[in-house]
Design brief:
The protein has one domain (about 10-125). Helices cover about 45% and strands about 20% of the residues. The protein has two helices and five strands, in the order ααβββββ. The chain has helices at about 10-45, 55-75; strands at about 80, 85-95, 95-105, 110-115, 125. A five-stranded antiparallel beta sheet has the order 1-2-3-4-5. β1 (about 80) and β2 (about 85-95) form a beta hairpin. The protein starts with 8 loop residues before the first helix and ends with a strand.
């Protein structure tokens, strides 16, 4: 079990360039997976065990890439909250209590935080 990490504002901001790349890649893989899903679903509806599809290897590879990126983000200590619009929370200690520094794709640095239970709608300026 990984020890909980708390980010300073500087540490969290240093993660942004990689997160931009990773979230962009996750979005691309998600689009790829939806194409494979559209191709495979009709086959699965016709026969419950059809011996596979020409798309199966690509589907498995894309799924593995997707999971590996999610794991990298999580192992860094970041909390990916969604691909659209690309939300990431960073555990942070503020005045002795745990809160989240909050970043969204398109923002060049972290400018907001929120209480853990408040989520994105509770964002407050730093």
């Amino acid at each position: 079990m990984q020890e909980k990490r708390y980010f300073t504002l500087e540490e969290a901001n240093e993660c942004i360039p990689e997160l931009v790349d990773e979230i962009s890649l996750l979005r691309a893989i998600r689009a790829e997976l939806s194409i494979y899903h559209a191709e495979i679903t009709p086959l699965l509806e016709v026969v419950s065990s059809n011996g596979g599809s020409k798309w199966t290897p690509a589907l498995l590879k894309a799924t593995e890439k997707f999971q590996n990126i999610l794991d990298r983000i999580a192992n860094r200590g970041c909390h990916l909250k969604g691909l659209d619009p690309g939300l990431v929370d960073f555990p942070h200690l503020r005045e002795g209590r745990e809160v989240y520094l909050c970043w969204r794709m398109g923002e060049n640095k972290i400018r907001y935080w929120h209480e853990i239970e408040d989520g994105f709608d509770g964002r407050q300026p730093l």
